Amino acid sequence: MFQDIELLDLLKKQKEETICLVDVRSPQEFAAFRIPGSINIPVFDNEERVEVGTVYKQVGPEAAKEKGLEIFSIKLPEFIAQFQSLGKEKIVYCWRGGMRSKTAATLSI
Questions:
Q1: pLDDT score of 17
Q2: Is 20 annotated in the active site?
């Protein structure tokens, strides 16, 4: 299960070092901007993100979701293992629609 968190609560937990802040965007997105102290466990690599985005633009959102699931399902065991190895409470973030972060938050329990 996941829940939204308010910015002030996030900053407090981050200061107390009781959380691990996880950015699930692609490495390129993470390199361009990230919340200080966060780590990157990407749902898609740079090329996969472009591929899913292209399907979204050319075919539509449902086809993009299917493509994303096709790509991500192969990586799922390693993705979950990375989250479990962190040990701390995890706060996951992404950008825009939130599909990647909601998926990661749901799977990382």
A1: 77
A2: no
The arithmetic mean of pLDDT across residues 29-53, rounded, is 93
Rg of the chain over Cα atoms, rounded to whole angstroms, equals 14
Q: Among 94, 101, 104, 105, which one carries the catalytic annotation? A: 94
Of the candidate CATH numbers 3.20.20.70, 3.40.50.970, 2.60.40.180, 3.40.250.10, the domain formed by 7-107 belongs to 3.40.250.10
pTM of the predicted structure, to 2 decimals = 0.80
Residue range 33-48: mean pLDDT, rounded: 92
Q: Maximum Cα–Cα distance for the chain, whole Å?
A: 45
44 alpha-carbon distance from chain centroid: 9
